[in-house]
Amino acid sequence: MLNTYDFPEFDYVQSDEQVSGTAARHSVVIVGAGPMGLTAALDFAARGLKVVVLDDNNTVSVGSRAVCYAKRPLEIWDRLGVAQKMLDKGIEWKLGRVFFRDQEVYQFDLLPEDGHKIPAFINLQQYYLEEYMVEACNQHPSIDLRWKHKVVSLNQHDDHVELAVETPDGIFQMEAEWLLACDGANSDTRRMVGADFTGHFFQDRFLIADIVMKADFPTERWFWFDPDFHRGQSALLHKQSDDVWRLDFQLGWDCDPEVEKRPENIIPRVKAMIGEDVDFELEWASVYQFACRRIDDFRFGRVLFAGDAAHQVSPFGARGANTGVQDIDNLSWKLAAVIRGEAPVALLDTYNTERAFAADDNLMNSTRSTDFITPKNSASKRFRNAVLDLAKKAKFAQPLVNSGRLSTPTPYVDSPLNTDDAGDWAGQMRPGTCAADAPISKGGKPGWLLEELSDGFSLLALGVDVVPVDAGVFTPKLLSLGKDFEDDEGLISQRYDASEGALYLIRPDQHIAARWRSFDAGAVKAAISKATGGPNK
Amino acid sequence: MSLILTPNIESPDDFYEVLTEAQREMTDEQANDMNARLVLILANQIGSLSRLKEAVALSQ
Ligand SMILES: Cc1cc2nc3c(=O)[nH]c(=O)nc-3n(C[C@H](O)[C@H](O)[C@H](O)COP(=O)(O)OP(=O)(O)OC[C@H]3O[C@@H](n4cnc5c(N)ncnc54)[C@H](O)[C@@H]3O)c2cc1C
């Protein structure tokens, strides 16, 4: 199979510390070089930390895995300088069609509003995503990526973690002040700290096939409920790069995964979907059972969890990697501040508060989609079919159709880092949401608002007079409309409800911490200290 | 406002007849399918989530 991509093989290099046999103490060690471990390495390095990344393998993601990446993770990768390649190679799409039996029920447009640098969604095979990030990591002097390094045990101490790591040269000891576990859904680290990982497994199986075909199917997401070519089940067709297409077939619980995986059984299913006379080759096929579960706490002493190691969702809605990247975005500035002694260790507990909240939101959405797609009893199936029947005739039923609610960021509405709003505000922005992008110009040259934000805090002044605020290491970068940039299209004013003037305090992860209608240096300082877990240093 | 629990259906006997007539010739399967569609149509008419929750609770 597989004939569009050559898997790289990264070199195993024995480390000096293994050769010398004395355990070295590192400030941060990341377990796992999947999308989360690699994103974390880039983000930590961008924030001035030195990181070691350990991966038990020596290549990128093998098999059919993530396809769709949403705007917010792409904005994070853009901040880290790796998004352009993904955007260039990826496929942009925005139209989805839903079918019931042999009829179209309705179509939806993701309606990406104009005036954002990054599109609503792109499709790209996970191996490309990882390959681009590995390249970027290799170019960064503060990132030490070690292949064929498997963490086999760990021991927690008050101020560090002791690790035993296995390589082709045997087992050696390492120490880390902080350990970030990005070792995926079957996380060994999670087991080693004794964490719970609870939720539920869906009693259903899915055949996921990637095929190569040169066909004129449009670049749209097609989802079928109970189609004539696959009665009683659901199916999905979606385009990726290099003429590779992702096909999903729901198989039910009684199927035999081993039998279903055989090409002679897959090929007739594919032909029934795309047509007898369309030429294609099978690139990869696997049978999955999906689960929705999360870890009980994202922090166990000096061990932090992110990505699939912390939460696993069914893929309807493309939430796995998309939400994992936002874990990293949330964690990296906090961990950097704690390691530098600029913020109390307690700031890391807000990583759990904010991201567990987001994980629960994702789990809820994935579970709802899965329940709609694979109804659990005949009554729910009847309602599901009633929704689909009605959606053809009456618009009111269309919002009830759930073939996956595509990933959007979860605002940290109740976060202890937010400063409560005073007064009335309109629009989407509020403390806890991530800052909306918008076009700007600077000295006549076009640009984007998010590109102007600082790696630290920013104070965005929209028609409000401000003077610099001294908040020590967290002193915000001042961005004043009319002075530092122009809002020619008026979209900033609109998106930030700034017609009467507005002042926004934005966190290092581009989330709103506080906002006001007028400037008060004391209020800004208090909000910064609230957002960083203590008095300003 | 909460769910109306006092008589509110205009001409109850007529309504009940419409419902019975609609399903007189149906198999259980067809009638159940129709009931599911009807629930959704009526739910849209109610609209308010809190009232719908009350209705679901009352019917359990
Ligand atoms: C069919 C399918 C479709 C999907 N579609 C989407 C989608 O469209 N969009 C989306 O956002 N997500 C999607 N996902 C989810 C996405 O693939 C995952 O969320 C993502 O891979 C998680 O990344 P991670 O880095 O947390 O873990 P992983 O990708 O699992 O990486 C973990 C890494 O840790 C290494 N490792 C494990 N144990 C050890 C150890 N003891 N020592 C050292 N290294 C170790 C592994 O070798 C691996 O490299 C999909 C998943 C599936 C299965």
Automatic annotation (TrEMBL), chain A:
Keyword Flavoprotein: yes
Keywords: FAD, Flavoprotein
Domain FAD-binding: 27-365
Keyword 4Fe-4S (UniProt): no
Pfam families in the record: FAD_binding_3
Spans traversing the lipid bilayer: none
InterPro entries: FAD-bd, FAD/NAD-bd_sf, RIFMO-like
Cofactor: FAD
Name of the protein described by the UniProt record: 3-(3-hydroxy-phenyl)propionate hydroxylase
Upper taxonomic lineage: Bacteria, Pseudomonadati, Pseudomonadota, Alphaproteobacteria, Rhodobacterales
From TrEMBL, chain B:
Pfam families with a match to the protein in the record: DUF2783
Domain of life where this protein originates: Bacteria
Name this protein carries in UniProt: DUF2783 domain-containing protein
